[in-house]
Amino acid sequence: MLRVWGLIRKNNKIVKDIVARCLEDDLNEEDALHMCIQEICYEFDLQRPLWFPKNQREYEDYRRIVLTQDNFMEPIDFDTLELEILEDDD
Predict the structure, then answer these.
(1) Residue 67 — φ and ψ, nearest 5°?
(2) pLDDT for residue 85 is more than 90
(3) Which of 88, 90, 82, 85 has the alpha carbon at shortest distance from 17?
(4) What is d(CA 66, CA 58) in angstroms, rounded to the nearest whole number?
(5) Residue 31, CB half-sphere, CA atoms under 13 Å: how many?
(6) What's the alpha-carbon Rg for the chain, to the nearest Å?
(7) Where are the alpha helices (H) located in 1-90, listed in sequence order?
(8) In terms of C-beta density within 10 A (0-12 exposed, 13-18 middle, 19 or more buried), how is residue 22 classed?
(9) What tens digit of pLDDT does each residue of 6-23 get?
(10) Fewest CB atoms within 10 Å of the CB: 2, 28, 42, 85?
């Protein structure tokens, strides 16, 4: 199971947050991550962000991704959408 904490920051304050879970065991971690991103965007009523090589590097190196206006085609009313992979407690 993969858990992703999604949070929206505006003026250095957390405005909204949610923890998305992917319960499907037959997916690899990257596919599970994209399913969680889809769930987070649905809950926040956002378009799906563009995924750049910079985002892939952040994911691989830090397991944390910071998405800005550059990742969205439409204007956003917040500063960042941050995604952090949460480790399992098992």
Answers:
(1) -105, 135
(2) yes
(3) 82
(4) 8
(5) 6
(6) 13
(7) 29-44, 53-62
(8) buried
(9) 999 999 999 999 999 998
(10) 28
The reported pTM is: 0.89
Give the Cα separation of 7 and 22 in Å (integer). Answer: 17
- Block residue for tokens 């090589």: 53
Query: Tokens in use for 57?
Result: 């590097």
- Partnered with residue 83 across adjacent β-strands are 6, 65
Count how many residues are written for the chain. 90
Which amino acid, one-letter code, is at 42?
Y
Query: Order of strands across the sheet with 2-10?
Result: 13-22, 2-10, 80-86, 64-67
**Tokens found for residue 83:** 């995604």
Alpha-carbon distance of 78 to 8, in angstroms, equals 7
- Say which amino acid occupies 43: E
